[in-house]
Amino acid sequence: MKLVTAIVRPDKIESIRGALESYGVQGLTVSQASGYGRQRGHTEVYRGAEYTVDLLPKVRVEVLVSDEWAGDIVDVLVATANTGRAGDGKVWVVAVEEAVRVRTGERGDAAL
Length: 112
Fold this sequence. Notes:
By secondary structure, this protein is an alpha+beta fold. The chain has helices at residues 13-23, 70-81, and strands at 2-8, 29-35, 42-46, 49-53, 56-65, 89-95. Helix content is 21%, strand content 37%. A hairpin with a 2-residue loop joins strand 3 (42-46) and strand 4 (49-53). InterPro entries: N-reg_PII, N-reg_PII-like_a/b, N-reg_PII/ATP_PRibTrfase_C, N-reg_PII_CS, N-reg_PII_urydylation_site.
């Protein structure tokens, strides 16, 4: 099993969710996050005062999938989240030793 994690722009979450559901993903976790990458935040002007926004709002999407689905899920996430501008985000994949469905006690791929 693999845990595919993506940090993306908040305005992309609905299109990502739709694309993952269309692909056949039955469950995902979405959390609010904040951070920065190479762009190191940005400067804004509010009521004439200039200030720096160091931590930008992001969304963290996590999907637990079988090994053979991981590459395809990464491709779906990258294609859907891409705007071509700095700050589009990152996607990474981590191996998962075991997963257990709490309600039934199912383990491994059956728990997905």
